[in-house]
UniProtKB/TrEMBL annotation:
NCBIfam families per record: PRK08193.1
Name of protein: L-ribulose-5-phosphate 4-epimerase
GO cellular component: cytosol
Cofactor(s) of this protein: Zn(2+)
Classification via Pfam families: Aldolase_II (PF00596)
Keyword Isomerase in annotation: yes
UniProtKB keywords: Carbohydrate metabolism, Isomerase, Metal-binding, Zinc
Statement: the UniProt record of this protein carries the keyword Glycoprotein: no
BP terms from Gene Ontology: pentose catabolic process
EC number(s) from the headed UniProt entry: 5.1.3.4
Species in which this protein is naturally found: Filimonas zeae
Domain Class II aldolase/adducin N-terminal: 8-198
Catalytically driven reaction(s): L-ribulose 5-phosphate = D-xylulose 5-phosphate
Family of this protein: Belongs to the aldolase class II family. AraD/FucA subfamily.
Length: 231
């Protein structure tokens, strides 16, 4: 892949965010990695989506250093870099402030697995990492956010392949996938599931968690060998 190829991929994936209603103004960013070159292309910071073009995507290495590009890379670049460096099978990362997922993050709550829509994609509650400590905020905040995400999965005995989405307490969601398109898909799924979970709790504050048998049934119907779903 050339730099131009990952810039195109990052551009196309970024442009999906406003189309899917996942971002307002500049509230988010997508990156696309090229593992053979050890770099990723990421949205420039603060540039509105209607002013983006593939050549504006900034090429950055897995330490977060700009390799090519005139604009400043997203302020979340170091978080993307940490995750690419430690999770060798991912090819795309998305960060948004989509309304419902962010509301759960601000509430510092995991999203409970209430129904089969959730179970079609995940067999567990969607984790919410703890808010960043004062020390982390004053230190390498974006870099530490990457570790906060990784540690929250570890605390739940989950790998980045078991689940491709997380909330960061008081902040917002991050999703990832083998490709930037899959990471965007995961972002849209997360937002939809977050909305349904909120409505479920409003309609019935005592709504039960989905039974394990139904979680397994719905997940297994969609995944496994020869499944196109979630590729
Ligand atoms: O988290 C935040 C803001 O709280 C950022 O992700 C969001 O504003 C997007 O920033 P960038 O324009 O990518 O630097």
């Amino acid at each position: 892949m050339s730099y131009q190829d990952i810039q195109e991929a990052a551009y196309e994936a970024n442009m999906q965010l406003p189309k899917l209603g996942l971002v307002l103004f500049t509230f988010g960013n997508v990156s696309a990695a090229d593992r053979s070159k050890g770099v990723f292309a990421i949205k420039p910071s603060g540039v509105p989506y209607d002013q983006l073009s593939p050549d504006k995507m900034v090429i950055v290495d897995f330490d977060g250093k700009t390799v090519e590009g005139k604009l400043r890379p997203s302020s979340d670049t170091l978080t993307h870099a940490v995750l690419y460096k430690h999770w060798e099978k991912i090819g795309g990362i998305v960060h948004t402030h989509s309304t419902y997922a962010t509301a759960w993050a601000q509430s510092q709550r995991d999203i409970p697995i209430f129904g089969t829509t959730h179970a079609d994609h995940n067999t567990v509650d969607i984790p919410c990492a703890p808010p960043m400590s004062d020390e982390m905020i004053q230190g390498d905040y974006e870099y530490q956010t990457g570790f906060q995400i990784m540690n929250a999965l570890k605390d739940r005995n989950l790998s980045y392949e078991d689940i491709e989405m997380i909330l960061v307490g008081n902040h917002a969601p991050f999703t990832w996938g083998k490709t930037p398109d899959k990471a965007v898909y995961n972002s849209a799924v997360l937002e939809n599931v977050a909305q349904m979970a909120l409505l479920t709790e409003q309609i019935n504050p005592k709504a039960p968690r989905l039974k394990d048998a139904l979680i397994r049934k719905h997940y297994e119907r969609k995944h496994g060998p020869h499944s196109y779903y979630g590729q």
